[in-house]
Amino acid sequence: MIDLHSHTVFSDGVLIPSEMARRAEHGGLTAIGITDHGDLSNMDFIVPRIVAVADQLSRVMSIRVIPGIEITHVPPALIAGMAVRARSLGARLVLVHGETIAEPVAPGTNRAALEADIDVLAHPGLISEEEVALAKERGIFLEISTRKGHSLANGHVAYLARRCGAQLVINTDSHEPADLVSSEKAIRIVQGAGLEREDFERMQANARRFL
Question: Which of 53, 95, 96, 185 could form a disulfide with 181 if both were Cys (CB 3.0 to 4.6 A apart)?
Answer without folding.
Answer: 185
